[in-house]
Amino acid sequence: MVTLLTAVGFMAALGLLLALVLVLANQRLYVYEDPRIDQVEDLLPKANCGACGEAGCRTFAELLVKGEVEPGKCTVNAKATNQRIADFLGVALGSGERRVARLACAGGAHVARQRARYAGLASCRAAALVSGGGKGCAWGCLGLGDCVAVCTFGALSLDAHGLPVVDESRCTACGDCVDVCPKDLFSLHPLSHRLWVACKSRDAGDEAEHECEVVCTACGRCAQDSPEGLIRIENNLAVIDYSRNALASTVAIERCPTGAIVWLEPDGRVLKGRDARRVVRKGALPIA
Amino acid sequence: MALLSSLFQSGSSKTFAHGIYPVEHKELTADKPVRRLPFAPELIIPLAQHKGAPAVPLVRPGQEVVRGEPIARAEGFVSVPMHAPATGVIRSIEQAPTAEGPKAEALVLRVYEAASQQVLYGAECDPLALAPEAIVRAVQEAGLVGLGGAAFPSHVKLVAPKGRVIETLLVNGCECEPYLTCDHRIMLEQHTTLMRGIHIALHATGARRAIIGVEDNKLDALRHLRAHLPSDGRISAEAVRSKYPQGAEKMLIKALLGREVPVGGLPADIGVAVYNVGTLAQMGELLPKGQGLIERVVTVSGPGVERPGNFLVPIGTPVRFLLDQVGLKETAGEVILGGPMMGMAVASLDVPVTKAVSGVVVLEREDQDLAARHIYPCIKCGDCLRACPVSLNPSLLGELAAARQYQTMAAEHHLDQCFECGCCAYVCPSNIPLTQYFRIAKAINRDIQRRKEH
Q1: Which among A129, A133, A134 has the least Cβ separation from residue B439?
Q2: Above 50 in pLDDT, residue B1?
Q3: Spatial separation of the C-alpha atoms in residues B74 and B80, rounded to whole Å
Q4: Does A134 touch chain B (CB under 8 A)?
Q5: How far is B396 from chain A (nearest CA, A)?
């Protein structure tokens, strides 16, 4: 009986002692954390996508509470949710235009020539290391979907011609596809950038058109038709100066002979000019 | 199978640990003497055929050039000049397809009809009377690069790094890649220039001795070289076991000298310089005449070729022209520049033969998709560990690569020591494309490194 009581007593004393240590530690080592951080974090999407430029939603929430960033910087949240954060913290909403990833290539299997058949690991990076991957255009999309595999948000999928399509409603502009593409075809753009050159080929004229039917041939018509300084031809490619984006209109696309420069409508339609070649082919071009 | 074939190898030959025994297929061209071909109507001469800075053009479009004339100069020390491989006119300087993939700047030379094979350009000299520094300069001016496939400027290796002395010159006559026989033919046919080249390299480096390493499947070449060794006793020739990748620099050093190059180091760190037989034969040929490298021996072989052989091909000859000359079979499939193990399949026959191309191998079209060969999970058999010549763990590296842990591969598992010989992928019973994984990993790590620097 005594043995039993001793054991119970000893354990109770030990428990009290350790509890005391914990109480003291809690008081001495306490770090104050603003409770608003947790509350703000709950209003963030918690996707940790990094589109705001911070390491994740927690870091962003900390900076929000400190007042160093504006809620509008989170481009993934709905505007109303960001407004709730702004109201909660008593700050201005701030502006942060939603950005999405865009692909600078339209050369699917139905319009771009394939010189050789690549037979190996199904990865764009692997194919690019074997003599460029076999596509006639040395700059074009290889269509093996490294970007689709790397996208955490399911915003990318390959279409029937093997070209990745960005689902703008899902894209968080995290930039993973930008990093993974061996041909550097993706870049992040605000939704207001509607004028788009879907090509990166540095070939010009007939030589370029021989490889791909929707290539930018560097004819320069878009640059001539647009307000001065909006579009320039650089390395046989039309380059849009987005600092003058306000000047952009569908005028630029009208006379493009191949339809390499396009106008992206907010509803997802891709407008080509009236002179652009109509591609009716559905199947892939033969390997030649 | 590997065990069986190892029994048949002459066990006395020196070698390194691990490695594989691929089927050699060298009988297709081993007895075919080196022949010349007519000039292609147009030669494409990329300005970056070597490791280091691309050459800078000395000519402009429309200019006439004579066979052997310099047409591009070296840019800095780790770079070499280019010489006109034929008499003709420079049509343009343009972006041309390369075997690596991205287009790169190249000189396009339209060859005159009935252009002579005679080289009219050059200034004769006696290299052995020159000071070592003058030889280094002369080797650079000759545009010489490692002709074994690495295309590293040869003159750079003639200068020992500060604090190092080159004691031994190893002459690489292994030619361990299946199908290739160009070095075999060079050893049989060009022993005079080879010995002269070795003497020049000995003189320039200050090395005391030179050892020629020849795989024991080329004993005729070994006997031939031994019969023609100079009497001063500084040059010897030894047999090494016919095993892949015996011709890799570090493997040859291990086999002949029993020494290992430190991780991340150069052969010069242990007093060794390694040269391919083709490089030294060209050195012995070109330096006394004061000429530049304008052609090289290329083995054109494989089951897809009608008339395989060894050819002296002007630099810049399009692969398409070369294959037209030897004839392609109906069944021809993949075209590989270099050997089938480390060579590169090309996506376009418009790419030219460059200084680095030792062979053009045409395989037969596979009945079914090679890509469709299913990739099975790793069964941890360990065959790849037994094959890897640099003793890495390809199995583990492969799993890390599949999980995209590229940085871990480099930081903790010595990915950078892999020289992509392909042994691991060759032996893998699960068809795991290990070498391809490692090449992706290295490319992505290079990308990350580049982004950090910007």
Answers
A1: A129
A2: no
A3: 4
A4: yes
A5: 18
The minimal CB distance from B344 to the residues A122, A131, A135 is found for A131
And the tokens for A271? 């407008």
Element (H, E) at A191: none
Domain-located, residue B392: yes
Query: Which domain CATH number covers B203?
Result: 3.40.50.11540
pLDDT digit string, tens, across residues B304-325: 999 999 999 999 999 999 999 9
Bigger pLDDT: B11 vs B186: B186
The architecture that CATH gives domain A99-189 is 2-Layer Sandwich (3.30)
pLDDT of residue B10: 47
Question: Comparing A35-89 with A99-189, is the CATH topology the same?
Answer: no
**B104 in any annotated domain:** no
Q: What is the ipTM of this complex?
A: 0.84
pLDDT class for A73, splitting at 50, 70, 90? confident
**Which residue does chain B place closest to A114, by CA atoms?**
B347
- Say what the pTM is: 0.85
The total of structural domains in chain B comes to 2
Distances (CA, A) of A169 to A99, A268, B280: 10, 10, 63
Chain A neighbors of B370, CB-CB under 8 A: 119-120
When pLDDT is averaged across residues B84-99 and rounded to a whole number, the result is: 93
pLDDT for B395 beyond 60: yes
pLDDT at A151: 92
CATH of region A35-89: 1.10.15.40
Domain segments of chain A as ranges: 35-89, 99-189, 192-282
Among candidate residues B289, B312, B328, the one where a domain is terminated: B289
- End-to-end CA gap in chain B: 50
Domain that holds residue B208: 17-33+128-289
Residue spans of alpha helices (H) in B242-372? 249-257, 277-286, 319-326
Which of B289, B308, B334 is the endpoint of a domain?
A: B289
Nearest residue of B to residue A126 by CA position?
Answer: B440
Cα distance between residue B194 and residue A279, in whole Å: 60
Burial class from Cβ neighbours inside 10 Å (0-12, 13-18, 19+) for residue A35 reads exposed
Same domain? For B24 and B167 the reply is yes
pLDDT in tens, B148-189: 888 999 999 999 888 889 999 999 999 999 999 999 999 999
Closest CA–CA distance from residue B365 to any residue of chain A (Å): 11
Q: Are B280 and B142 found together in one domain?
A: yes
Question: What pLDDT was estimated at residue A204?
Answer: 86
Res. B114: pLDDT tops 90: no
B309 vs B301: CA distance, rounded Å: 6
* B370 vs A245 pLDDT, higher one: A245
Q: Which residues of A touch B95 (CB under 8 A)?
A: 202-203
**What length is written for chain B?**
454
Do B45 and B317 meet the contact criterion of CB atoms below 8 Å apart?
no
| Token digits of residue B420 | 């992509």
CA distance B216 to B227: 16
